[in-house]
Amino acid sequence: MAVCISVDAAEKTFCRSVQTWHKHSVFAVSEMGDADPLFELRNLYLVGNYQAAINAGLSLGSLPERVQVERDVLIYRAYIAKGDCAIVLGEIKNNAANPLQAVRCLATYLSKDQDIALASIKEWLSEPHLANDEHIQLIAGTIYFYKETTTKY
């Protein structure tokens, strides 16, 4: 569970809305007390400000490898949300981490190579170590959602 707190120690205000978040320098702090370096990126993505999310993600300095992958997933999902699937397909290589491969699979699906994407998702979900990956689950759910919506209507 994350808690929003103001960085300015003199101001002990909790953020109650997105406006408050923009007025103050705010970080998400885990229960362990560690600041979440992707807090701004996640929030910008979730409110639909995709270009700002991309800019925020690209401006982050050096991060641990796990956090870099998470950052890249969010950046590439923002590109997809903007309709820039070609960027995702061009930049994510075949030897990238599994979460990034899942994002590439979503871009492939949305680029009309649906059979290839569906085959990849089915293969990944049949392998236990991949099926438990939260990013693969999210992307698989997104692809199946798109598949159901487009076949019904």
Short account of what is shown:
With 153 residues, the protein is mainly alpha-helical.
Written account of the structure:
The protein has 153 residues and is mainly alpha-helical. The protein has helices spanning 18-23, 39-46, 50-58, 65-81, 85-91, 98-110, 114-126, 128-131, 134-152; strands at residues 3-6, 26-29. A two-stranded antiparallel ribbon has the order 1-2. Helix 2 runs antiparallel to helix 3 (50-58). The radius of gyration is 17 Å and the shape is globular. Mean pLDDT is 81; it is low at 1-27.
Unreliably modeled segments: 1-27
How are the strands of the largest sheet arranged? 1-2
- Mean pLDDT across all residues, rounded? 81
Name the overall outline: globular
Order of helices and strands: EHEHHHHHHHH
Helix content: 55-70%
Helix-strand category: mainly alpha
Q: Round the Cα radius of gyration to an integer and report it.
A: 17 Å
Q: End-to-end span in angstroms?
A: 39 Å
Describe how the helices and strands are arranged.
Layout: E1 3-6, H1 18-23, E2 26-29, H2 39-46, H3 50-58, H4 65-81, H5 85-91, H6 98-110, H7 114-126, H8 128-131, H9 134-152
Helix pairs in contact: 2-3, 3-4, 4-6, 5-6, 6-7, 6-9, 7-9
